[in-house]
Amino acid sequence: MKIKKGDNVMVLSGNDKGKTGEVLEVIPKTEKIIVKGINIRKKHVKAAPNKEGGIQALEFPIHSSIVNIVCPKCGKTTRIGYVIENDKKFRVCKKCGEKLN
Questions:
Q1: Among 54, 77, 93, 97, who pairs with 68 as Cys (CB 3.0-4.6 Å)?
Q2: Which contacts of 51-55 are long-range, i.e. CB under 8 A and separated by 24 or more positions?
Q3: Which residues of 48-68 are buried (b: 16+ CB within 10 A; e: fewer)?
Q4: Domain ranges within the chain, ordered by starting residue
Q5: Distances (CA, A) of 30 to 33, 34, 61, 62
Q6: How far apart are CA 80 and CA 41, in angstroms?
Q7: What's the predicted TM-score (pTM) here?
Q8: What would the CATH number be for the domain defined by 1-70?
Q9: Residue 26 in contact with residue 4, Cβ under 8 Å?
Q10: Residues in the chain with pLDDT < 70?
């Protein structure tokens, strides 16, 4: 997957189309990601000794194919390419060529 934890992404389709957020978790096995403030659903949680129960709003996973990374330099959604320099592989923005962390 080209998306990593900490990247800023924009949702391209679905109920949250056009919203942006930070990737909190990546699930490579199912190709899904959890984005802060996106795909929020209510879940009934049973009380435990160390945490409170009740109805909580949680972020649920979305498929990685419906998001694009937002380049920090140009501020636009972009595709990701790879460049190899000095035996190290870097992700780069396809629009401006900026290296991504």
A1: 77
A2: none
A3: eeeeeeeeeeebebbebeebb
A4: 1-70, 73-101
A5: 9, 12, 10, 10
A6: 30
A7: 0.84
A8: 2.30.30.30
A9: yes
A10: none
